[in-house]
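Support request, please re-run this one:
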Amino acid sequence: MKFYLENEIPISAQELWQTMHTLVFDDFVAKEYDLIAYIELEKQISDNMIQRRVRVISNLNKNYITQHIGKKILGSDVLTYEEIQTKYLNKFELHWKIIPPVLTDKFEASGILRLEPINENRCIRIREGGIHIAMFGAERLMKMVAAVQSKKNNDRFSQVVEKWKLQKTLINMDD
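Re-run finished. Output below.
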């Protein structure tokens, strides 16, 4: 299953690119998305890129079907996976790949996150990639779950960035 999502974000591409994937912003976003944890395990920096490996720990979606299937496969209500990220510093582009906790030979998910500047106060955040599950019926179920999640979270990141900006403004006012 291929996907393509884009959202208008209320911050410049340059500022968002410098902010994204910092520990402070990661912590803020993790809280906003109700993640149990978002942990940077490794980080390598070169002249033109940052490579990171992060661990994401999340409760399974409250949707009964997702919980039931996830619990059967994972044996838990908690989903833990790792993500390998390569962030290119000379362009607004990040490549990612998910490393699942189980079924590593049957599950593939990877893609690209890009930013396109609009003006000094806004940009477009584009997420595209593919998810493939080599299990009977799983691809169809994944499409249904992805459609529901995409509709539900369509502007979520934009709202999180708006809240981040407000928090930063309030902190600066206190100084």
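The helical segments are 13-19, 23-32, 64-74, 138-152, 156-174. Residues 2-174 form a domain with the Alpha-D-Glucose-1,6-Bisphosphate; Chain A, domain 4 fold (CATH 3.30.530.20).
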